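Give me structure tokens for this 115-residue protein.
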Amino acid sequence: MSGERQVRVYCAGGCEVVQLVGEIDHATAPLVERDVLVSVRASTGVVVDLSETTFLDSAGLLCLDRVITVFSDRGAPVRVAAPAAGMVRFTLDLIGFLPGLLAEDVPAALAEIAV
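Here you go.
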């Protein structure tokens, strides 16, 4: 993804939403992880939005795990929004990603954090 930013951050429902765009793979995962950790300072909650993520390999999964761990360690609840019909969600389900952290979309993830 030359020239296009892969991490977009915005506020919604009192939380910070981190949208990951495009392929998160061996070549891009370190930069994505750095961008997320530098851009997000949330303490009230973080939603990682994978609706615009087209591919996630093992490096992308490790990046996602590290990001979730950092925010959890800061005391911020974290949810991952990944559409059920998408390839990224298939990958997350295949590896046994924690179902309690998964939501269908950003509004559902925000609602889970607010509970």
